[in-house]
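HUMAN: Spend a minute on the protein record below and explain its fold to me.
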Amino acid sequence: MDTMSVTGIIATSPRHVVTKEGFDVTSFRLASTGRKFDKGQQAWVDSDTNWFTVVSFRQLAHNANLSLTKGDRVVVRGKLKVREWSNDDKSGTSVEIEAESLGHDLLWGTTTYERSSSLGEGDDAQEDEPF
């Protein structure tokens, strides 16, 4: 699987569920529109918008649920998954990012960081795998 980083705007209200096994899952749609300089217009213009479904699990999902809202500009890093799907008479392609890290895009604003108490105080070993 390919790992990628994407910036964009959260286009849907994040959906948070807890599985019957007790695992947190948070997902949302991300709209990522690039910008390019148009020499003819002598101005920056929007290029096409790419749409991704972002899914996070466990502690990242829990923190995302508490921190992110529709309209936030975010940075997402994770594993890219492209899948073909079909049901009845419809079919298509799903482009998903399984998030490994999420955060607000500080180019567009400020945020305040608060460490999750469930990660433990001063426990550096857990920072790599906060499950």
The beta strands are 2-10, 15-18, 24-38, 43-57, 73-87, 90-104. The two ends are 21 Å apart (CA to CA). The first strand starts at residue 2 and ends at 10. The CA atoms of residues 15 and 60 lie 13 Å apart.
